[in-house]
Each structure stands twice: as C-alpha cells, then as structure tokens.
C-alpha cells in the first residue's frame, strides 16, 4: 500500500549506503595499511591496558556518585529542580575542551583548589595524568548517569511506594524491596554505556593525559600521526581501537541499555518514609557545585579577555561556525530520508538501515579519520580538506542522535497523514514540502541543534588533518593552552561555549517558532 | 453503477464478503455493529485495503488495484482530514492541486467552494482556529473540489454534537444531490442514516448486504442488525 513518495525512500537507501561506505571503507583502508599485530610494542599494550582500566574506573566512579544524587532528585521537590535536571543534559553539547579548561581553572596547578590548599599550608594536587583523565570523564558522565538512574527511579510505579507506606516499611526495607531491585536492573546498562563512551575518549586524554602512564589508544593514534608520522602504526592502533569499541559495544548490546534522550524527568515520586533532608541536600549541592564551579571559573577568567582575543581566534571561530552549520545541514539531509526509508521498508530491511545509521558510533572519529587520511593523503594535502573532513565525520557521528530524534516523529507523521496524502495523490516532492518538513520542524530543529553544537565543539578528526590555516576553534583553543596563554585560552573557551549553545538554541528555536 | 463483485477481504482472522451493486447518485449509509468491518469495507473502496478476491467496478471499469488517488473516490477519514500547519484555503486547494501550487484561478475556485460550505472569507485560518463543525466543512469542501464521482465518508462527523452533525449531513446531502455524487457514509447512528435519506448497506456477520430502503430497514431490522440496534 505504501505508494508514492518513493524518491525519499531511494534517497534514504543512498544515505545508508554512503555512511556504510564511509565507515566500512575507512575501516578497510585501516586494515590494509595496518602492520602485523606482532608490531605492538610495550607502550601500545600499556595504552590498551590504560584505556580499559580508566574507562572501568571512570564508569564505576560516575555511577557510584550518581546514585545518591539521582535518589535525592527523585524524592525532593525544590526551587530550581527542573533547571538543574535540564543542566544535567547540557554536558552533551558542552565542548570537551571547554570543560577541560574549566576543570584546569579549579583543579589545575594555579587553580582554586590548590590556592586554597596552599593558603592552609597543604601540598598541592596535580591534575595532569591518570587522575585528570578520570576527573574529566566523571565530569562528563556523572550528569548522564544521574539522568539515566533518575529515569529508573521515576519508572517505579508510585503505587509501590504507597503500598510500602501502608505496610509501615522503613527506609531500609523500602530500599531492599523496591529500590535495590530497580538499581540492579538499571545500573549495569548505565555503567556499560559510560564505559563505552570512555574507551573512545580522545579530547580529555589529549588535554589532561599523555605520558606513558596516561595514554589511551585514541591518543596513541594521534601521537603516531603527529609525532612519528608512522601511518602503519597509527592504522594498527586504529584496528586495536576498533576491536576495543566493538567488544565493549557488543557487551553493552547484551545488556538492556537505557535511552539517553528520555523525557518526563520533571516528576517527583511522593514518599512517605521520613529520611532526614540534609544528605539529599548535600548530594545535590555537591553535584551542582562540581558541574557549575568549573564553568563559573572559566567565565570569570575568560570574560575580560573575550574582546581582546587575537584575530587568529576569530578566524578559527568563523571556520568552526561554517563547519558546524554545514555539518548540521548534511546530518539532516542524510538522516531525514534515512528515517523515512527505515519506516517504509518494513521491519527487517528497516533494521538493517538503522544499523547503517548507527555505524558512526561503532567506529570512533579517530579511526575514521585515520582511514580517510590513508585514502586521501596520496592525492591531496591534509590541510586542504581538514574542514570538509571534519564536517563530514561530525555529521556521521551526530546521525545516531538525529535518528533517535527523527525516527519516532517520522513514524507518527506517516501514521497520521500518509492516507490523506495518498488519497489526495500528493507526489513525493509535494509530500516532503507540504507534509513531512512542516510536521517535523521541531525534531528537525532539535536534531540540527545537536549536530551543530557537537560539530562546533569537536576536537577529534581535525587534529589529524589541520594545518596552520585550517584550525577550528577547539583546535585553536588547544594550541593556546599548549602555549600556556591561559587568559586567551579562557576567552576563546568562553567564545566557543557561547557559540555552541547559541547554535543549539537557534536551531532548536527555529523548529519551535510558529510550529 | 458501483459494483462490488464477490469481493472478499481477509485480515488475520477477520473475513468480509461483499456482493452488492449501487446505482450512480445513490446516498448510502453503511451501518452495522462495531468491529463488523464497516471501515475496512470503505477502505477497500478507497484503496487502503487490498481485497483477497473479487472486483470493484465503476461504470464498467475495474478500479481495485488502482492507487488511492487514481480511483474515482474522494475520502473523508474519521480524523486527520486537515493538515494542521496549512490554512483552510491551502488544505482545500490540495483537492485541486495535490502539489500545493495554486494559480489565481484556483484561488477563486477555492474561495467559492468555501463560501458554498458556509465559510466565506475564512480561508486564511488554520484548522486550530476553526471549530469542529467548521473543520468538517473545510474537509467536505476539499473532498468536493477533488471532483470525484464517489464520496466515501468514514464517520467524519462522529466528534460533532447531534445538531452540528445533522447540519453537516444536510449540507452533504444538498451538495451531493446538486453534483450527482454517489455517497457512501459509515455511521453508527441510525438517526444519521435516516437523515442522509435514501438507502443503507448493512455490514454484519461477515457480509455486506443491501442496499435496503433505510426507513423500512430500521423499522423492521433483520436478526444480525436487530441485536446491534437493540
């Protein structure tokens, strides 16, 4: 019965093929170029070990710290609760390098924490190294863990707490009979998602790690490129990274993984057991401070130098804006037809297309970057295509999230309006213009905003390709940090933060106005 | 003449047969118990359900197998008849130009039909700014502009109150009579069937039967329908 509007389905198939070709093609290139597995030296093995254990530790810490915060948010109602929960979603579009700089302002050598320690005569703490990498990962993943665990808490039917109250259960009994089983079901999935994210983390390791003790595989790929220009070794490490990601991904798939884009967190579960208020207040205050103080430190330090930033920073900002907008547009152009094709081709074929859309997650940006470098290097100067490659890879990386936002909306539009469109005889183009695009404005705006913000703040594949003329703003910021120009770096970070948030806001807003 | 020739519809464990002939210009109500297949029968006519066997023939031409838009049928669904993001005029215009590109002459025609259904000058409003009854009028105006000889209605006025519904059926009756349209309207209200005038098809017990004269049918209903009417 699905007649009409075929061109869009064909475009969706094309988009899936393009993504598959890009990801699988680069992986093949990586495999072809990789030197034998025997070539893995002790440093490489150290990188593999570090990647795995720092991810495990980051994940365990994030989850353990998130539990009391989620519990507090689930059972307390207070002014600013909604705002705090929204804020917990913000790290998703917060550029990694901005957060890292904020953490440096607080925990770094001349940061607020060490100033305070020095004032009372205590030895200072160092941020660079293992502890820095883990600190950065907890900063980014604690909020995610809180949101996911909070979802678990709010999924417990309110009737159960009512029943527990009528049975006269105390806090301990409620925990054992209601909350512990929920946590047992939810925590493994949350921990695995965060573990997966941390195994392919690059920017945190690049800025806070390094050295023999704190080098991840992703960072080792970068170093093989940048310092040794050893493509064979970079490719071999990319194969290793791919194996790590796929193994962690397969593990995550075997456990029910919760959805990160869940809605409806504004509910509070009514409880009748009287727990003292102060532990909850403390948990919420500490979590909020951990997330907000670094950003506040950044704003304080960066604001004065914002207007006197060197021209090279403004030029980089302009390039980044162009890349982000183009990347978001490309992401939507690839994802919308794909979402339509997934819906229209039925369950089994649609599932295959969905996997193609999600491929961006399977291969990390640096793996794709390595493959693209190997393929293009003989023909073009890397610097000449740095921005195009960055925009393309960012678009593919944002596709899974865009697909998550668009998929259900496309299904709804098709369900509600495809019969009317068919009975009127609307062709594919008319249907796109008059039905799909207007009905999908909100999810399109949201997905575009996500893609733009993610691209704006991305410090990944661009590090492999860029030369002096083609640095994006995050890369320029990284260079300022490397040159210890911390005031300029703070100003640039503030600019980057503002631009990322503004891009997200503009896209998202564009989808809501008059919708 | 609209003929359902030994038509069979099967969906999982649901089965319906129809072997009926409907004269051109007839106004038919379709009644029967819920779940009996009234909407499915209409969907087979509109082209949204493929029959398992049999034929649908309009004036000697076989029309089953054609795409919905290629059939001589304009359809009004239970809901979602108007795109909420388009103005009333643009919604109606889609009946004339499915690609949404209207000429100045098309606009005049749209305005004329909007006046004919009692909504002069309301073309710039979006469905959300219209009452339920006005939305029904816009949908009816568009169905008329589609200029198909058969009008298939699947309880599009079910959400309206009794007085508004009676008004809409009268409007439908008037327009259909003037233009010589063949009307098939699903309803679960015997009063609606009477109001439409003319005849009734009964969908019950896995078969479509009729057409019967509506008045006598309701006065002395057959067994399957009697249980439903109570």
User: At the third CATH level, what is the topology name of the largest domain in chain B?
Assistant: Rossmann fold
Class by helix and strand content of chain B? alpha/beta
Rg of chain B computed from alpha carbons, rounded to a whole number of angstroms: 18 Å
Q: What shape does the CA trace of chain A take? A: globular
Q: Please identify which CATH superfamily of the largest domain in chain B we are dealing with.
A: P-loop containing nucleotide triphosphate hydrolases
Task: Please indicate the percent range of residues of chain A in DSSP E strands (runs of 2 or more).
Answer: under 5%
CATH architecture of one domain in chain A: Orthogonal Bundle
Task: Count helical runs of chain A.
Answer: 21
The best one-word shape of chain B is globular
Note down, in words, how this protein is organized.
The complex is a heterodimer of chains A (515) and B (230). By secondary structure, chain A is mostly helical. Chain A is 77% helix and 0% strand. Chain A has a domain at 1-33 and 306-515: MetI-like fold (Orthogonal Bundle), CATH 1.10.3720. The radius of gyration of chain A is 24 Å and the shape is globular. Chain A starts with 5 loop residues before the first helix and ends with a helix. In chain A, 50% of the residues are buried. Chain B is built from eight helices and ten strands. Chain B has helices spanning 38-46, 88-96, 104-116, 132-145, 162-179, 190-196, 214-219, 223-229; strands at 2-11, 14-22, 27-31, 53-58, 61-62, 73-76, 150-154, 182-186, 199-204, 207-213. The longest helix of chain B has 18 residues, at 162-179. The chains are: A mainly alpha (515), B alpha/beta (230).
């Amino acid at each position: 019965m699905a007649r009409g509007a075929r061109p869009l389905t064909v475009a969706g198939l094309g988009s899936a093929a393009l993504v598959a070709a890009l990801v699988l093609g680069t992986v093949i290139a990586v495999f072809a170029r990789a030197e034998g597995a025997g070539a893995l030296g002790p440093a490489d093995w150290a990188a593999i070990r570090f990647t795995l254990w720092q991810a495990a530790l980051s994940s365990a810490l994030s989850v353990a710290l998130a539990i009391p915060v989620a519990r507090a948010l689930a059972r307390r109602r207070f002014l600013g609760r909604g705002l705090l929960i929204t804020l917990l979603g913000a790290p998703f579009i917060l550029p990694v390098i901005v957060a890292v700089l904020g953490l440096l302002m607080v925990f770094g050598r001349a940061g607020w924490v060490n100033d305070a320690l020095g004032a009372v005569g205590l030895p200072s703490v160092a941020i660079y190294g293992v502890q820095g990498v883990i600190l950065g990962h907890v900063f980014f993943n604690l909020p995610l863990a809180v949101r996911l665990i909070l979802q678990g808490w709010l999924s417990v039917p309110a009737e159960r707490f009512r029943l527990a109250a009528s049975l006269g259960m105390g806090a301990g009994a409620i925990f054992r009979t209601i909350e512990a089983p929920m946590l047992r079901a939810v925590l493994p999935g949350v921990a695995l998602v965060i573990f997966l994210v941390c195994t392919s983390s690059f920017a945190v390791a690049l800025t806070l790690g390094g050295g023999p003790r704190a080098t991840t595989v992703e960072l080792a790929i970068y170093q093989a490129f940048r310092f040794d220009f050893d493509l064979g070794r970079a490719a071999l490490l990319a194969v290793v990274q791919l194996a790590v990601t796929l193994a962690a991904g397969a593990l995550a798939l075997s456990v029910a993984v919760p959805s990160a884009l869940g809605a409806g967190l504004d509910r509070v579960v009514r409880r009748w057991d009287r727990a003292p208020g102060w532990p909850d207040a403390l948990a919420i205050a500490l979590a909020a401070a951990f997330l907000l103080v670094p950003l506040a430190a950044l704003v304080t330090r960066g604001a004065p130098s914002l207007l006197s930033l060197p021209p090279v920073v403004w030029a980089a900002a302009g390039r980044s804006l162009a890349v982000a907008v183009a990347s978001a547009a490309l992401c939507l152009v690839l994802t919308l037809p794909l979402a339509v094709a997934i819906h229209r081709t039925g369950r089994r074929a649609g599932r295959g297309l969905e996997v193609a859309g999600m491929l961006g997650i399977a291969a990390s940006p640096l793996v794709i970057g390595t493959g693209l470098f190997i393929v293009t290097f003989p023909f073009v100067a890397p610097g000449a295509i740095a921005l195009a490659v960055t925009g393309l890879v960012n678009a593919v990386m944002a596709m899974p999230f865009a697909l998550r936002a668009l998929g259900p909306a496309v299904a709804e539009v098709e369900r509600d309006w495809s019969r009317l469109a068919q009975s009127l005889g609307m062709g594919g183009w008319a249907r796109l213009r008059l039905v799909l695009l207007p009905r999908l404005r909100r999810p399109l705006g949201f997905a575009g905003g996500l893609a733009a913000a993610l691209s704006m703040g991305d410090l990944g594949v661009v590090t492999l390709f860029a030369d002096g003329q083609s640095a994006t703003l995050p890369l320029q910021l990284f260079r300022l940090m490397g040159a210890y120009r911390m005031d300029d770096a703070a100003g640039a970070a503030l600019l980057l933060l503002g631009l990322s948030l503004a891009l997200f806001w503009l896209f998202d807003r564009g989808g809501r106005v008059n919708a | 003449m609209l003929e359902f020739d030994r038509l069979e519809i099967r969906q999982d464990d649901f089965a319906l047969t129809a072997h009926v002939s409907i004269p051109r210009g007839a106004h038919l109500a379709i009644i029967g118990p819920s779940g009996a297949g009234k909407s499915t029968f209409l969907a087979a006519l509109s082209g949204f359900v493929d029959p398992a066997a049999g034929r649908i023939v309009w004036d000697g031409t076989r029309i089953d197998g054609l795409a919905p838009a290629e059939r001589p049928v304009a359809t009004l669904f239970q809901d979602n008849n108007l795109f909420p993001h388009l103005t009333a005029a643009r919604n109606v215009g889609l009946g004339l130009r499915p690609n949404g590109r209207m000429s100045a002459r098309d606009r005049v025609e749209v305005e004329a039909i909007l006046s004919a259904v009692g909504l002069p000058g309301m073309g710039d409003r979006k469905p959300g700014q219209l009452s339920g009854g006005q939305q029904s009028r816009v949908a009816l105006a568009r169905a008329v502009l589609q200029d198909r000889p058969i009008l298939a209605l699947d309880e599009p006025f079910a959400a309206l109150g009794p007085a508004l519904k009676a008004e809409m059926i009268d409007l439908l009756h008037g327009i259909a009579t003037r233009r010589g349209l063949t009307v098939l309207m699903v309803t679960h209200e015997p009063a609606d069937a009477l109001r439409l005038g003319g005849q009734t098809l009964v969908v019950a017990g896995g078969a479509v039967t009729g057409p019967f004269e509506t008045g006598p049918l309701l006065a002395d209903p057959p067994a399957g329908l009697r249980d439903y009417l109570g």
